Amino acid sequence: MNAAFIPLGTGDLLIAAALLLATGALSWRLQLGVGRRLLIAGARSTAQLMLLGLILHSIFASQSPWLIALVMGVMLAVAGYEAWSRQTRPLRGAWGYGTGALSMLLSSVTIALMSVAVILQPTPWYHPQYLIPLLGMLLGNTMTGIAVAMDTLGREAWTRRGEIEARLILGEAPAGALGHIRRGALRAGLIPIINSMTTAGLVSLPGMMTGQILAGGAPFEAAKYQLMILFLIAAGTALGAASAVMIMSARLFDERERLRLDRLEGEAR
User: Which of 96, 123, 175, 240 has the fewest CB neighbours in a 10 Å radius?
Assistant: First the structure.
């Protein structure tokens, strides 16, 4: 028989928070310079997660499709900003933010909607208890893959401009001149999820499986859910990274097939 779910009290969270404070004190003692950022991150995560818990409680009760769509839109907008802000050489202007956001819309949002409608099939099909957590896991992971792929593409194009221009002079099309860099960017974007799938169950116990087990779920059922999530994340990361790299690659050349690195941010941010 599975153990009953054990709710956490305020005192339990304070014990965990005390460990975080001890980590901050250790950072200060060793002069690591990350103590303040660590404490700010802890305070932000506390406020954000508690607020999200209250919001989701209301949304689960109402099951309003408009509120669900609003929450999904906010999640996508924030994920797009985070993917853009993590790049060293992002595209200038609206293209920098829009490329990452559009790629996640085509990958994470599409796969999340398909998953609840085809695989899970709750009633109603857009039930927030399934759709919002699923989208959150997809966005969080595909965001990393897309950001890594775009960052790699921008940095490599910037540092290897001479090689790209030489290929163009020799008659190669933009796709060929940038092809090896694009492939490297895609590989870099897929490495995190490949590592996660390779070590799942041996080195790490993934978060969703751990949460279900702690909540009293059967371990074998938790493993099946975690497998589904890993496969969806891998597909979403591949689709999102490929979309982002293709859009960004096209933006790096003009209609006359000239390399346009002026469309990248000129200084590391």
Answer: 123
